[in-house]
TrEMBL record:
Signal peptide: none annotated. This is THIF-type NAD/FAD binding fold domain-containing protein. Keywords: Plasmid. GO terms for molecular function: NEDD8 activating enzyme activity. GO terms for biological process: protein neddylation. Residues 120-278 form the THIF-type NAD/FAD binding fold domain. It holds the Pfam family ThiF. GO terms for cellular component: cytoplasm. CDD domains: E1_enzyme_family (cd01483). It comes from the Bacteria.
Length: 360
C-alpha cells in the first residue's frame, strides 16, 4: 500500500484498485459513486490545466488504469505528495488533540452523524439526566454518561454501600462499606475525580411516593429508572410523571430494558402492560397486584446481566441524543443471563393512552 497526502489536509490512501480520500478536518470516509461527474473530472485531469481539488474529500473507486492516471496527474501538479505511514498517524493525532484534548476521538466519531460535531458535543454536555437508583446499573451508567461528557446528572438513592453489593456494584469499595457511606456520596466522589467539570447532584433518599418525583430537576432531558423499590409502584409513578411533564424515560430492571418512552413518539409503560394483560387474558394484572403486596426482597443477580443492560441503554441513548434517530419500536429487551441471549418483545398499540398526546 502506498500513501499519498494533499498539502491542504486531505489524505489519499491508494490500494490495488481503488483510492480513498479522507478529509482530515472531519475524518469522513465517503464513497464517490461512478457517475458522469467522475468521468468528466478524470477527463479534466488529463488536460493541461491546473485544477482545484478542494472538494474531492471523498472515497473514489475506479479501475486501476484510470487510477494511475489520476495519481500521476496529482503528483505532476504537486497537489499531493508521497508520505510515510507514521507521518499520517502523527497528523491524525494532531487533529484529534486540536479538536478537543479530552473529547477529540469522540468528536471524530460524531462527525459521521453531523456537520457540526463541536455543537453536538456541547449539547450532550449540557443535557440534564436523572438516574433513579445508584445500584449496579445506575452507578455504572452514571460514570459512562460522564465519560460521554454529560455534566449534569442527578442521582437518587437512600442506600448505603454494603459488602455484598461489591460483586456487581464494582465502583464502590470495601472501605466505603466499612464506613457505612451512602452510595450517592461515593458515586459523586468517583465521578468528580474522573470528570472534574461534572455537576453531580445527589439525593440521599428513596423516591417513595409520586410526589417525590416533583423534586426532580424541572429541566431534566432524560430519566433512567433503575430502582426496584417500592416494587409494583415506582415504575407507575415514574410513568405518570414522565407523561405529564413530557420527559423521556428508560425503564430498566434485572433482566430487562424498556420501554423507552419518548413523549408523542413511543408507547409508555401502561401501554405495554395493557398489551401483556390482553395477551394473558387478565392474568398479568392479577400477578401485578400480588407483586405489589409482597414484601421487598433482593433478587439473585450476576455481573453479566447488568453489563448487557448497559449496552442496550447506552445504545438507546446514542440513537436518540446523538444520531437523532427517532424511529423506535415499542419494545422490551428481555435478557437471559444463563446464555447471554436477548429477546425483543414488540407490542402493539390498540388502546387510547394519554402518552400519545403531544410530544417533546
Amino acid at each position: 500500500m502506498k500513501f499519498i497526502q494533499k498539502e491542504m489536509g486531505c489524505e489519499f490512501f491508494v490500494l490495488d484498485t481503488e483510492i480513498m480520500i479522507v478529509n482530515n478536518n472531519l475524518f469522513k470516509y465517503q464513497i464517490f459513486p461512478k457517475s458522469e461527474y467522475l468521468s468528466s473530472f478524470i477527463k479534466y485531469l488529463n488536460s493541461d490545466k491546473k485544477i482545484e481539488v478542494k472538494n474531492l474529500n471523498r472515497y473514489i473507486e475506479v479501475p486501476s488504469d484510470i487510477l494511475n492516471k489520476i495519481i500521476d496527474k496529482f503528483l505532476k501538479l504537486k497537489l499531493i505528495r508521497l508520505v510515510e505511514v507514521d507521518e499520517i498517524v502523527q497528523g491524525a493525532e494532531f487533529i484529534e488533540q486540536s479538536l478537543d484534548p479530552r473529547f477529540g476521538t469522540q468528536l471524530l466519531w460524531m462527525n459521521q452523524f453531523t456537520n457540526d460535531a463541536p455543537k453536538l458535543l456541547s449539547n450532550i454536555k449540557n443535557l440534564e439526566v436523572c438516574i433513579i437508583g445508584a445500584g449496579a446499573l445506575g452507578s455504572s451508567l452514571a460514570l459512562k454518561l460522564s465519560a460521554m461528557g454529560i455534566k449534569n446528572i442527578s442521582i437518587w438513592d437512600g442506600d448505603k454501600v454494603e459488602l455484598d453489593n461489591l460483586t456487581r456494584q464494582y465502583l464502590y469499595t470495601d472501605k466505603a462499606s466499612q464506613n457505612n457511606e451512602y452510595k450517592v456520596d461515593e458515586l459523586k466522589k468517583i465521578i468528580k475525580n474522573f470528570y472534574p467539570e461534572s455537576n453531580i447532584r445527589v439525593h440521599r433518599k428513596f423516591i417513595n411516593s409520586y410526589k417525590s418525583f416533583y423534586e426532580i430537576e424541572k429541566n431534566t432531558n432524560l430519566i433512567i429508572q433503575t430502582a426496584d423499590f417500592p416494587k409494583g409502584k415506582i415504575d407507575y409513578w415514574c410513568n405518570e410523571y414522565s407523561i405529564k411533564n413530557k420527559i423521556p424515560v428508560i425503564f430498566t430492571h434485572h433482566k430487562s430494558v424498556g420501554p423507552f418512552y419518548i413523549p408523542g413518539k413511543t408507547a409508555c409503560l401502561a401501554c405495554f402492560e395493557n398489551y401483556i394483560n390482553t395477551q394473558t387474558n387478565g392474568y398479568f394484572k392479577k400477578y401485578k397486584e400480588i407483586v405489589k403486596n409482597k414484601p421487598n426482597q433482593k433478587n439473585g443477580s450476576f455481573i453479566t446481566g447488568q453489563l448487557m443492560n448497559e449496552v442496550i441503554i447506552l445504545n438507546l441513548f446514542t440513537r436518540f441524543f446523538i444520531k437523532k434517530d427517532y424511529d423506535f419500536s415499542n419494545s422490551i429487551f428481555i435478557i437471559n443471563e444463563s446464555d447471554l441471549s436477548i429477546d425483543l418483545l414488540n407490542f402493539d398499540l390498540k388502546h387510547e393512552c394519554q402518552c400519545r398526546q403531544g410530544g417533546i
